TrEMBL record:
This is Cyclic nucleotide-binding domain-containing protein. Signal peptide: none annotated. Residues 11-78 form the Cyclic nucleotide-binding domain. SUPFAM superfamilies: cAMP-binding domain-like.
């Protein structure tokens, strides 16, 4: 796991906006090995992990899916729901039993549209997550598939 900003850390979603968003939360549980979503499919919800872990993976032609990052407590699962065309860019599977807060993407987008300050806070929070995930994906793919010494310090 990483030490980057999460749902409850200071640089993430401010408390007042987090409380507003939590009004839409629904408690859910998933057993180990549950596919939460598949790359290329419709992104209509997202989750914040309460307990357990979830692996994000990326399809690699001719190989099995590469695990990009493993997420845990208080981390956001899913960002594709916020940006058109609302299609998952990665896949996700539980690696242990997971309890999470689930959010309906359409309801959250509508709430953000009605409250521009909330919308900006959510966009910044999710945008930070997107940036971290893209950096993690690049690093992981270089680790897995690039010739030795071809990385940024090679």
């Amino acid at each position: 796991m990483n030490a980057s900003p999460t749902f409850t850390q200071p640089r993430a979603l401010p408390v007042e906006h987090r409380e507003h968003l939590m009004r839409l939360a629904r408690d859910v549980s998933f057993p180990q090995g549950t596919r939460l979503f598949e790359e290329g499919r419709r992104a209509d919800r997202f989750w914040i992990i309460r307990t357990g872990t979830v692996a994000l993976d990326l399809r690699v032609p001719g190989r099995r899916a590469a695990v990009i990052e493993t997420l845990g407590h208080n981390e956001l699962i899913g960002w594709s729901w916020l940006f058109a065309p609302h299609v998952w860019h990665l896949g996700a599977e539980t690696t242990s039993p997971v309890r999470a807060f689930e959010f309906d993407a359409g309801e959250v987008r509508a709430m953000c549209q009605d409250d521009p300050a909330l919308g900006l806070a959510v966009a910044e929070w999710v945008g930070d997550t997107v940036g971290r995930r893209l950096r993690a994906a690049r690093t992981r793919l270089l680790d897995l598939y690039a010739p030795y010494g071809s990385g940024p310090f090679g």
